[in-house]
Amino acid sequence: MAVKRYDIVSDTHGFLSPELLSELAGADLIVHAGDMCSASDYRTLSAIAPVKMALGNNDWAYDYGPMVKDRTVFLGSGLKWQVTHYRRRLNLQMCDVAVFGHTHTPVLERDEWTGTLVMNPGSPTYPRRSRPSMGRILVEDGQVVDAQIITLG
């Protein structure tokens, strides 16, 4: 089984920089943890790779279609993924990989109780307490083989 590349973004707030778009090229799937704030950006990302997204507090469901909800759960590369905008909405007992946004601050850790990989990719547009960033998770044979925060700019 080949390595699958999941690129993780959040809080783009209506702006996809050329550097971000260049970094996303070649992704097998893009995971967006909300506050995209632009239906046209959703179409742009969908042209690069399939998109799994959760609604942020600045998103409207009618911009993205019925598959985009407050919590998105999906199976990918043998792992159960969960995506929400707010960390407090994550249920770490029901997934292998948990992605959230909202704080614009990167987080990458393993939950000590469940072993779940937890990531907030930060924000490529309006970072707080950090540089512009995104995340990347590589999966092979149902195992995370690499997870990182990528600094942009």
Folded structure, characterized:
This protein is mainly beta and 153 residues long. Helices cover 11% and strands 35% of the residues. It has 2 helices and 10 strands. The chain has helices at 18-24, 39-48; strands at 4-9, 29-32, 51-53, 71-76, 79-84, 97-99, 107-110, 117-120, 133-140, 143-151. A 5-stranded mixed sheet has the order 3-2-1-9-10, covered by helices on one side. A 5-stranded mixed sheet has the order 4-5-6-8-7, with no helix packed on it. A hairpin with a 2-residue loop joins strand 4 (71-76) and strand 5. The longest helix has 10 residues, at 39-48.
Task: Name the features.
globular; mainly beta; 153 residues; 5-stranded mixed β-sheet
Give the helices and strands, then pairings:
Layout: E1 4-9, H1 18-24, E2 29-32, H2 39-48, E3 51-53, E4 71-76, E5 79-84, E6 97-99, E7 107-110, E8 117-120, E9 133-140, E10 143-151
Parallel strand pairs: 1-2, 2-3, 5-6, 6-8
Antiparallel strand pairs: 1-9, 4-5, 7-8, 9-10
Question: What's a quick, concise take on this entry?
Answer:
By secondary structure, the protein is mainly β. It contains two helices and ten strands. Helix content is 11%, strand content 35%.
